[in-house]
Design brief:
The chain has 3 domains: about 190 residues, FAD/NAD(P)-binding domain, CATH 3.50.50.60; about 120 residues, FAD/NAD(P)-binding domain; about 70 residues, BFD-like [2Fe-2S]-binding domain (Arc Repressor Mutant, subunit A, Orthogonal Bundle). The radius of gyration is 23 Å and the shape is globular. Helices cover about 35% and strands about 20% of the residues. It has about 475 residues and is of the alpha/beta class. The protein is built from 17 helices and 21 strands. Helix 12 crosses helix 14. Strands 1, 2, 3, 4, 5, 6 and 19 form a 7-stranded mixed β-sheet that branches. A 5-stranded parallel β-sheet has the order 8-15-9-10-11. Strands 12-13-14 form a 3-stranded antiparallel β-sheet, with no helix packed on it. The model has no long low-confidence stretch (mean pLDDT about 95). Helix 1 links the parallel strand 1 and strand 2. It starts with a strand and ends with a helix.
Amino acid sequence: MSEARDLAIIGAGPAGMAAAITAATLGVDTVVLDEQASPGGQIYRAITETPVRHGTVFGDDYWRGLDLARAFIGSGATYLPGTTVFSVAPRVEDDRREIGISSGGQARLLRARHVIVATGAQERPMPVPGWTLPGVLTAGAAQILLKSAGLAPSGRTVLAGSGPLLWLLAAQLLRAGGTLSAILDTTPRIRPGLDMLAFATSPYLSKGLALMRETRRHLAPISGLTGLRAEGDDRLRGVSFFDRAGTTRRIDCDTLLLHQGVVPNVNLAMSIGCAHRWDDSQLCFVPTLDAWGHSGTDGVSIAGDGAGIAGAESAAERGRLAALDAACRLGRIDAARRDREAEAPRRVLATYGRGRAFLERAFRPIEAHRIPSGDTIACRCEEVSAAQIEDAVRIGATGPNQLKAYLRCGMGPCQGRLCGLTVTELIARARGKTPDEIGHYRLRPPVKPITVAELASLPRSEAETNAVARQ
């Protein structure tokens, strides 16, 4: 018999931690499952154990996560770090969902009446020519190294792309003693709009301007560029691009950090069967949710940036709302108390919601850096190029799932996590349709790679044990 819980929260980032604190306080029997070795997610990664202890490197926003992490650890919720969730099955006996988890090479099952998926965000792919060369990383990977191990790049390093994280990472790397040879800002020219008024009153404006001023004291960014290309043979040797005048320029470098925003990590939620739609403002698939984060799939809520990108502060409040609603559905509190305790989180969400529309419009990644062409790799796991995908569409592949039969796209270790958006937009462009019409990969468990040995380690059911005994 597998272990039974009232509530399982998947992910220990801001949303997962806040949800666990809220649920445990309300008397809900809660377990938190997280792949990482310590709580924090990406934004607060290694917050309880980072070797970078002086506060100036990461800034006050990062260290505010320490109070949240400490409250989570002391909340009374069961916390299982280093645990991979590879499946969430439909409801089984005693009206609970069965969750497949693996830790330390051993797989097992647990059951929960309600599940909150708080898997957060992932970096949007930036499939420019040469992006698979050794020496090319994502900006998020560099931030992981900095937070987890206190490592900053040395030598000739170029940071390229767009989005708020680009400026945050540049400032953090420079504070940590890292070297940056250039910042290549691919943000398109911003057109005036009414959303600028809301942004001017948001918490983001002053933070963003401060980061840009700090970075520009060290080096001036090159802005308005297109045609970004990583160049090299056995490894990265340089990066080339077209400047505003259309002139080709090249910078020699050893490391190239790419970034053009983040998108919801939807693989687990899609594998459960939660409905998703294409959000043209965020250029990605987002789950269809109610005001509490419930997915419409019985017993499954989604919280944090996995519900749509909104930032760390909003993620925590979404976690609290999802936990309040789960507690209500589980009979721990009534709807009146749920609604009353939701008032404070909703006020915070309204504050941090101001300016999001402008940020999404201002940092909308250009099509040339989202949708590759020619020999540029689209699916890294199976080494499939954009041209191969376009050829497959011409001979009959109608969508991502049919493409699997042609080219194995989306069938590698990442299970389409890195190529999903790229493939959808490539097919949409080739067929003259919208991404919503094309859809995403059909995802099935296991959503994370596990070995046959791990599967074999699953405990036998009572029926299986009896059958073996009779043999």
